[in-house]
Amino acid sequence: MIAADVTLYAYAVVLGLLGIFGLHRLYLVALLVRTSARTREVPLDEPDEWPMVTVQLPVFNELYVVTRLLDAVAALDYPPERLEIQVLDDSSDGTSGAVADRAARLAEAGLIVHHLRRPKRIGFKAGALEAGMRVARGEFICVFDADFLPTPDFLRRAVPYLSDPEVGMVQARWSHLNRERSLLTKIQAIFLDAHFAIEHAARNQAGRYFNFNGTAGVWRRTAIEDAGGWQHDTLTEDLDLSYRAQLAGWRFVYLNDLEAPAELPESVGAFKSQQRRWTRGAVQTARKLLPRIWRAAVPVSTKLEATFHLTSNLAYVLMVALALLVFPAMVLRAQAIGTWVIWVEVPVLLFGTGSICVYFAVAQRAVGRSWMGAALRLPALMALGAGLALNNTVAAIRGLGGPAGEFVRTPKTAAAAAVSSASADERYVAPLGWLPWIELALTSYFFTVVVIAVQRGMWMGLPVLVLFLGGYAYVSVLALGQAWHLRSAAERA
Predict the structure, then answer these.
(1) Lower CB density within 10 Å: C or N end of the chain?
(2) How far apart are CA 405 and CA 246, in angstroms?
(3) Cβ atoms of 212 and 219 closer than 8 Å
(4) What pTM value is reported for the model?
């Protein structure tokens, strides 16, 4: 009896905490609507004299996209004598040769291009950015990851906002070169659209802290230096620096109308690898900076929003707990169904599922797309979120303790092109690891409990079980299938 009570109470607590995260999503939507009319950033006039800008391109084994990136940066509509390009190349494959050839050609065309190599990859991306800044000439520092294709007007639209001496960073919104490639890329795009168009926009407009996303942004050099520079004790050096700079008093600007096209991971393995790094790094940043944030002389509303922002990935831990508790709780609550429906199931359904619907629908409208597309893909979106829970929970737990860990790059394969030979290159295939096998076991478990629930007529909890079944089946089967296909292609090549 005690075990049954503990299970039900634990289930209620997990649902309640997930409901709080759902309420926070609705809060961000309300904050966006309430502040958008009076605080939307407006285009600024171009300066009389353009400042010196250093564009940093951190690359590590980016053979299939690096020349595309260099060509796009070379095409920036910015005075060439005021533009410095740094390729921060830590590669150990053929990327360096491709960079050297293209950089030499661009230099012959009159551009200022530096190909910088380090003897050791110390500090990973943060270390490369730090090393590049020591020799950079620019008053402002712009960063693009290897899978981005900035539009020619990017700097001309972003740099004027830095004419305000209090602005330390300007962030653009990511758009997606291969959005329509598959269901996986469509769902990723919806996730990222909400991150930018809801989270960034609402926080920026309301004067809360938000973050540089590691790419497609322009920094004031003195803001980086004032905040303590690039540090590599977390896997999200961008998030870490963002909070340190804003705690130092710098203001950030988010431009929802300035798009930076980029490539989304096309394999579920690459996507999960990216999610692990982001999750682990965010938890590391929370562990590092939340005490400092709560000691800072900033409004409580800013502290609370920063706490939600930096700990949001802990919701995945709750999702794993929910997955383990949901079927036992379904069996145990059968005799108290009325109470549970009123006090547990209905609030969670309202603030969980309902908040997700509103959140992603508003985000799609904010980026100029139809909300119907997101609505039709909502079941798949929720299933993918559930399927990521174990992957991201492992990352969150690792982020709570221990060293920063290795910065595992997300393989980039020029997926927006018609065909990429990277599909047959083992160096550009994310490691499979052991998690897909655990997720496959969970798929079997949820298939079994779905069958039992149908046999017993447990209709109230069935949607949650089906959600977990679909999520774990999708990420495990797709990961194993794609890994087998890519390995086979590599062997044939």
Answers:
(1) N
(2) 25
(3) yes
(4) 0.92
Known catalytic residues are 90, 238
**pLDDT at residue 207 greater than cutoff 90:** yes
- Cα–Cα distances (Å) from 459 to 325, 346, 355, 456, in that order, read 17, 14, 22, 9
Question: Does residue 273 contact residue 235 with C-beta atoms inside 8 Å?
Answer: no
What contacts 427, CB < 8 A, 6 or more positions away? 61, 93
- Give percent above pLDDT 70 in the chain: 88
Question: Which amino acid belongs to residue 442?
Answer: L
Pairing relation of β-strands 140-143 and 217-220?
Answer: antiparallel
Mean pLDDT of 52-63: 96
Residue 27 neighbours by CB under 8 Å, 6+ apart: none
Could you count the other beta carbons within 10 Å of the beta carbon of residue 204? Answer: 23
Q: Using 50, 70 and 90 to split pLDDT, how confident is the model at 345?
A: low
Dihedrals φ, ψ of 94, to 5°? -80, 5
141 forms beta bridges with: 54, 219
Place of tokens 């991150």: 195
Radius of gyration over every alpha carbon of the chain, rounded to an integer in angstroms: 23
Res 68: pLDDT:
96
Count of CB atoms within 10 A of residue 484's CB? 11
Yes or no: say if 163 and 44 are a contact pair by the CB < 8 Å rule. yes
Contact 92, 375 (CB under 8 A): no
User: In angstroms, rounded to a whole number, what is the distance separating the alpha carbons of residues 97 and 25?
Assistant: 46
User: For 407, left (φ over 0), alpha (ψ -120 to 50), or beta?
Assistant: beta
Q: What distance in Å separates the CA atoms of residue 387 and residue 398, rounded to the nearest whole number? A: 19
Q: What is the pLDDT of residues 128-172, one digit of tens each?
A: 999 999 999 999 999 999 999 999 999 999 999 999 999 999 999
Dist. CA 241–CA 143, nearest whole Å: 14
Question: Left (φ > 0), alpha (ψ -120 to 50) or beta: where does 41 sit?
Answer: beta
Burial 273-292 (b: 16+ CB within 10 A, else e): bbbbbbbbbbbbbbebbbee
Give dist(CA 472, CA 466) in Å, integer.
10
